[in-house]
């Protein structure tokens, strides 16, 4: 396939699917409730792309019948991740399969559901992938272009965009109406996409505008507050909504007390643990101390977190129990990676603990019984 090289080359990736695509699709649309090994692999790839978003170059060209994108990087590791990502997520589009992602937008879900209306051509470049997606359906074209605008924000801001509203939590059972997405793609700054609802705790970010046609209902005597009042309560409430929305939920395995115990661990480690950092060759050693319940929470979280680290993360995480908690040694994978070494020392223990947006998926896995054990309470 030859592309028109007179068009400005586009750097980015199309139809991201939030990294939850798979080369081999599940037999049924079970989504993250029942993640298989392929889905977990793709999540790791997207984690790397988000963490290293500053190593990616992206522009987007909207075509009359679709979108043209290219994702490239000068980092060989990122080139490999880009090519893996595009190959794996393309399977969802080709099958017209929406896995009912907990974190999604109407544009993304519309692209997945309309996948059979999309002609997708992808080829490797020397430093990444070039993708052209077109459709004869105007609504699908609008969805492709809208989602491309969302991915631009993710490439620009990384995890901050994901947590700040670029990929907002959508009700799992909601089905986007493609015709509603026929408006022009989003301009600079994140916007509310058609069908995107405010979830408890969501706030407007700078530059975030309302899509044309959206209005706020004026307060009435019957209006109800939307804030849950407590973050752990809101997290559990969100998990309950996801479990209710998934017809495959096995209620005999659901254990919200296990999730509540894990949220308590997160609170204790984040707010009550004492940390002493010591710079060492390649990174730092963190002695994390606490007493009673805090000490046990430190051990559970510090010792289990290493299992979520992939070689492509660029650092290693080794933890051992101590009399008062745990000693965690974090080093850059490459001895010449001075930027990673500085990053480790700057982020510290809790900052490094947050890396990898696995926590939300892990919370769901603890609750539905599919990922229990790593933070087991006895």
Question: Can you describe what's shown?
Answer:
This protein is an alpha+beta fold and 378 residues long. The chain folds into two domains: 17-181, no CATH class; 256-368. The chain contains ten helices and nine strands. The protein has helices spanning 37-51, 76-95, 106-113, 138-157, 159-164, 231-245, 256-272, 293-305, 338-354, 359-368; strands at 56-57, 60-63, 66-73, 118-125, 128-135, 274-280, 283-289, 315-322, 325-332. The strands form two sheets. Strands 1, 2, 3, 4 and 5 form a five-stranded antiparallel β-sheet that branches. Strands 6-7-9-8 form a four-stranded antiparallel β-sheet, with helices on one face. α1 crosses α2 (76-95), α3 packs across α4 (138-157) and α7 crosses α8 (293-305).
Helix percent reads 25-40%
Radius of gyration equals 22 Å
Low-confidence segments, given as residue ranges, are: 1-35, 168-217
Structural class: alpha+beta
Shape: globular
Compute the separation of the termini in Å.
58 Å
The tally of structural domains comes to 2
> In sequence order, what are the helices and strands, one letter per element?
HEEEHHEEHHHHEEHEEHH
Write down how many β-strands occur, each being a DSSP E stretch of 2 or more residues: 9
Count helical runs. 10
Query: How much beta, percentage-wise?
Result: 15-25%
Q: Please, what is the average pLDDT? A: 74
Biggest sheet record:
5 strands, antiparallel
SSE order and pairing:
Layout: H1 37-51, E1 56-57, E2 60-63, E3 66-73, H2 76-95, H3 106-113, E4 118-125, E5 128-135, H4 138-157, H5 159-164, H6 231-245, H7 256-272, E6 274-280, E7 283-289, H8 293-305, E8 315-322, E9 325-332, H9 338-354, H10 359-368
Antiparallel strand pairs: 1-3, 2-3, 3-5, 4-5, 6-7, 7-9, 8-9
């Amino acid at each position: 396939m030859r592309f028109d090289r007179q068009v400005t080359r586009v750097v980015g990736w199309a139809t991201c699917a939030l990294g939850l695509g798979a080369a081999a699709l599940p037999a049924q649309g079970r989504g993250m409730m029942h993640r298989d090994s392929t889905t977990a692999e793709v999540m790791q790839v997207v984690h790397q792309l988000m963490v290293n978003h500053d190593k990616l170059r992206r522009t987007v060209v909207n075509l009359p019948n679709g979108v043209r994108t290219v994702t490239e990087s000068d980092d060989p590791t990122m080139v490999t991740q880009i090519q893996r990502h595009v190959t794996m997520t393309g399977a969802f589009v080709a099958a017209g399969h929406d896995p009912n992602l907990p974190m999604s937008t109407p544009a993304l879900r519309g692209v997945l559901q309309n996948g059979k209306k999309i002609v997708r051509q992808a080829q490797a470049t020397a430093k990444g992938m070039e993708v052209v997606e077109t459709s004869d359906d105007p609504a699908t074209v609008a969805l492709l272009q809208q989602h491309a605008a969302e991915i631009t924000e993710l490439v620009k801001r990384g995890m901050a965009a994901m947590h700040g509203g670029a990929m907002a939590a959508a009700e799992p059972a909601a089905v986007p109406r493609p015709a509603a997405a026929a408006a022009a793609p989003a301009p600079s700054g994140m916007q509310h996409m058609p069908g995107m609802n405010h979830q408890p705790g969501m706030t407007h970010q700078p530059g975030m505008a309302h899509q044309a046609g959206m209005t706020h209902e004026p307060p009435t005597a019957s209006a109800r507050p939307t804030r849950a009042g407590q973050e752990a309560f809101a997290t559990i409430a969100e998990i309950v909504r996801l479990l209710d929305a998934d017809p495959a939920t096995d209620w005999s395995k659901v254990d919200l007390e296990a999730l509540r115990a894990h949220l308590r661990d997160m609170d204790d480690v984040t707010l009550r643990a004492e940390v002493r950092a010591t710079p060492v060759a390649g990174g730092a050693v963190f002695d994390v101390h606490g007493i009673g319940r805090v000490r046990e929470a430190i051990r559970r979280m510090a010792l289990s977190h290493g299992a979520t680290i992939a070689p492509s993360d660029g650092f290693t995480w080794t933890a051992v129990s101590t009399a008062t908690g745990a000693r965690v040694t974090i080093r850059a994978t490459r001895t010449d990676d001075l930027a990673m070494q500085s990053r480790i020392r700057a982020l510290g223990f809790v900052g490094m603990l947050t890396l990898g947006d696995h926590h939300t998926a892990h919370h769901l896995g603890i609750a539905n019984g599919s990922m229990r054990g790593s933070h087991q309470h006895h």
